[in-house]
Write a structure and sequence with these properties.
alpha+beta; Glutaredoxin; 7 helices; 4 strands
Length: 138
């Protein structure tokens, strides 16, 4: 379900995700199935190093937090990144206004996400992988 990058993707939302993380993989596949409008360009950072390099995000940054580029080319991370994707998906799009309008909900969710992101590799059984840049420097 990965898309190939083309001129038509330039105005799409782009989600950079870890396709080797079991939980991330499950979540992204679920969202991809709902993306019937093909509004999201899904980039697996473990397979598409070129797209990651073009984004200006390092492998380490992409592994540390979810990154999403919106239609205006603005890069968002964490819960705000997810919300950008969710706005384009059935069911999920209903969650976004709740998060935006319930006082303190966004910061609470961001704190939970930050904690999860910090420990996601050991929690999901995935081992940390050095980037290609680290391998070249070693």
């Amino acid at each position: 379900m990965e898309n190939s990058k083309s001129e038509s993707t330039m105005s799409k939302v782009i989600m950079y995700h870890d396709g080797e993380c079991p939980l991330c993989k499950f979540e992204v596949k679920t969202m991809q199935k709902l993306d019937i409008a093909n509004a999201i360009y899904w980039v697996d950072i473990t397979k598409d190093k070129e797209a990651l390099e073009k984004s200006g995000i390092t492998y380490q940054q992409a592994m540390a937090r979810i990154h999403v580029q919106d239609e205006s080319q603005k890069m968002l991370t964490g819960v705000r990144g997810f919300m950008t994707v969710w706005k384009h998906l059935p069911y999920y799009r209903r969650i976004v206004p709740v998060i935006e309008h319930v006082p303190f909900l966004l910061p609470v969710l961001e704190s939970i996400y930050t904690l999860f992101a910090k420990y996601r590799l050991p929690l999901t059984g995935k081992k940390s992988q050095p980037s290609e840049h680290q391998n070249k420097e070693a």
